[in-house]
Amino acid sequence: MAPETRSSVVRIARLVWADRLGRVGLLLLAATFVVAILGPIVLPFDPTLVGTSAKTILAPPSGGHWLGTDELGRDVLRETIQGAQVSLLVGLVATAISMLVGSFIGIAAGYTLGLADDILMRLTDFFLALPTLPLIIALAALFGQSTVILILVIGLTSWPSTARIVRSQVLSLRERQFITRVRSLGATDYRIVTSHILANVLPLIFANTVLVIAGSILSEATLAFLGLGDPVHVSWGTMLHFAFETGATGRGAWWYILPPGIGIVVVVLGFILSGHTLDRILNPRLRNR
Amino acid sequence: MSLLEVEDLSIRFRTASGFVRAVDRVSFQLERGEMLGIAGESGCGKTTTALALPRLLPETAETTSGQVRLNGRNLLGLTEREMERVRWREVAFVFQGAMNALNPVFTVGSQILEPIRLHEPETSEEAARIRADELLEQVGIPARRGREYPHQFSGGMRQRVMIAMALACRPKLLIADEPVTALDVMVQAQILELLRRLRTELGIAMILISHDLSVIAESCDRAIVMYAGRVAERGSVETIFSRPEHPYTRALIGAFPDITGERVLVDGIPGAPPDLRTPIPGCAFADRCGLVIDACRATEPLLRPMGDGHTVSCHLAGGTR
User: Fold this and answer.
1) Are residues A207 and A15 in contact, defined by beta-carbon separation less than 8 angstroms?
2) What part of B 47-66 touches A (C-beta under 8 Å)?
3) Rounded percentage of chain B residues whose pLDDT exceeds 70
């Protein structure tokens, strides 16, 4: 099925591109990814390269520093480019965890039903009710501030909605006739789930993923802004945190606040626009709305 | 030895309101390459009988008596593992409403190969693909269309695909449950034509289940008419249609318009089949039968041979009436 899958990804990308908002979303995403992947190679950021004199601290944009400097005299442009990479990395990896856990639990619960379903759904409710913020503050206190902890916490608190959506779809799929047919062929449950059920929920998981990425990036920004980010791997949230902490706002250092802020908006908007378009394409009932 | 011998098969279902006797001492035989039709109205036990042969009944069903011998081997005595090897490789089936049983996200060709992948895993990918093309051509679909998805197929074509799928492991017996129901008349004729052709070309024996007597009259060699889980009449198609002995068979035939005759309202059969939760002492059809006599309610009519393999379960059969 590999070539089929690849061609369908291309086909779906084309469909998203055909939509006006979807195209804006794809362009925003493409720009972000280019900056995040190529940017650090062209304009590498060295967090230890701090300013040497008072004049280089929070300096406004100039020929040497196009977007000025931060409170330590570091180049804001390079820092923002570096931040794109961290923000995207956290967003993507956390979403991957969330999707894997959510899909697995959703499919397992919806397909097996009975006691296993009850247990898994109560577990889902538990995680749904878990307050993210206090949890990460507690975890950061226990394990220190690190990007890995941030990824894990975002990933492990955002899967319940996916699990619920996937489960409801599997509940309907498992009663469909082709499942009965495959079962009469003597296929094992494992085969039924990994081939027939999975192939049918994949579009749903895929559309959901794009929207969850936006949420994960926002969560990362929120948590980092509150000072729970990794100070070594500077993300946009971390930049905003330090900008706020060192009084960049009060000193009118807009060049320190706007770049990470715009960055977050661009990425999140990119994912949301393409995500909604994708959702509309994959879910025909939402068309023409 | 016949290909299939069903002897005294009885099946009941556990329900909240007690046992329902769905199949009651049904016996029949099927020769190699023969086409047998099972007719009867809804709930008469056609599908239950058919599903019992490959042992695909739901868990609430219980086989209380009988034997199902395929090539002399009693299938009801096999373990589930042994049964797995019989299904699809010896007995294949096309389920009721099968044409809706294709997974919408996989190509038709890849789904036809599923029985081979599951039952003959030693087959190479290349050989399997060639087989899929062959199977599609066999049921009259151009091989290239195997790369398309089910929604690109019409109902008739999907039914052809299901038949191709059933043939994938070269079975000796094909059970088709209502294979042409919900198809329009032209497509029905084409599918029946296909089944007849496959039977001559491949020498497969077939059991065709239908509530539509004309479907059976058109395709089968022999027919069984079932009523309330019992065999009412059994014989060659010619006999059943030209000289039906059981009042139920006659009523069923009377319920079809004669296209060469005058335009008349067809006769329905008043009443409904009996409640199978309670034992029926006499003839199951007694309450709906116009010819009912006292003996009908008192004693159950047993199947009586009328010559030429024609058997009827009616007290009045063969009489002068």
Assistant:
1) no
2) 56
3) 97
Q: Which of B40, B145, B47 is nearest to B98 (CA)?
A: B47
Is residue A193 situated within a structural domain? yes
Q: Is residue A46 part of a domain?
A: no
Give the span between the Cα atoms of B271 and B278, in whole angstroms. Answer: 17
> Shortest CA distance to A62 belongs to which of A75, A78, A46, A53?
A75
Provide the CA A61 distance to its chain's centre, in angstroms.
Answer: 31
Closest chain B residue to A188 measured between Cα atoms?
B118
Judge contact between B233 and B240, C-beta under 8 A. Answer: yes
- pLDDT the model gives residue B206: 94
Residues 6+ apart with CB under 8 A from A62: A68
ipTM reported for the complex, 2 dp: 0.75
Q: Per residue in A110-119, pLDDT tens?
A: 998 889 889 9
Indicate which CATH number applies to the domain containing A89.
Answer: 1.10.3720.10
Residue of A nearest to B97 (CA): A177
How far is residue B35's CA from residue B30's CA, in Å, rounded to a whole number?
Answer: 8
In this prediction, residue B9 carries a pLDDT of: 94
B81: distance to nearest CA of chain A, Å? 10
Judge whether B158 is closer than 8 Å to chain A, CB to CB. no
Q: Which of A200, A193, A30 shows the shortest CA–CA distance to A108?
A: A193
- The beta-carbon neighbor of B87 closest among A4, A177, A186 is A186
Q: Is B101 touching A (CB cutoff 8 A)?
A: yes
Coil, helix or strand for B222? strand
Question: Residue A111: inside a domain, yes or no?
Answer: yes
End-to-end CA distance of chain B: 38
Q: Do B114 and A187 touch (CB under 8 A)?
A: yes
A188 inside domain? yes
Provide the pLDDT confidence category of residue A38 given band limits of 50, 70 and 90: confident
Q: Which of A4, A172, A174, A181 to mutate to test the interface with B (most CBs of B within 10 A)?
A: A181
**Residues spanned by the domain of A276:** 11-38+74-286
Torsion, Cα A278 A283 A285 A286, to 10 degrees, reads: -20
